């Protein structure tokens, strides 16, 4: 039942499969790594940039009104709804740290001063001293862009009214 011919067929099957696999790898290398530094391959296309555009500063959005105007008309109830995005990592109760520090009394508090929270990245204190409304407004727009190196992984709030509403809500939580 189990003779040398059966064993030969099994070994030949494995060798044939391995050969097909190696041919597939070789074909894929030829298709996808043509310009990887092997031989003299000319670039297929290039994008020409006008002179001086590569070093241009990003444009500041002209649509953002001053923070003071937005805070004057901020809606605390809408800020509570926006806080739902923050709730995954932050708590509002004093001393109740989670992934991030508690946010009770954050408006006006020194950066890195939440008691009992020691996992600050240090990048925030390089950019801000106190969490006033302007600092929070700028930071909440793009946390990683405003303070590179921060451990906060939130993408930010692009809508100026959402940021102002959230700041008003955070300011109202501590009386």
What report would you give on this structure?
The chain is mainly alpha-helical. The chain is built from 7 helices and no strands. Helix 3 packs across helix 7 (160-173) and helix 5 (133-141) crosses helix 7. The model is unreliable at 56-60 (pLDDT under 50). Keywords: Electron transport, Heme, Iron, Metal-binding, Transport. This is C-type cytochrome.
Summarize the structure.
The chain is mostly helical and 175 residues long. It has 7 helices and no strands.
List keywords for this structure.
175 residues, mainly alpha, Cytochrome Bc1 Complex, Chain D, domain 2, 2 domains, 7 helices, 0% strand
Question: What's the SSE blueprint?
Answer:
Elements (H helix, E strand, L loop, with lengths): L3 H29 L34 H6 L3 H7 L40 H5 L5 H9 L1 H4 L13 H14 L2
Helix pairs in contact: 3-7, 5-7
Keywords: Electron transport, Heme, Iron, Metal-binding, Transport
Protein name: C-type cytochrome
Organism: Palleronia sediminis
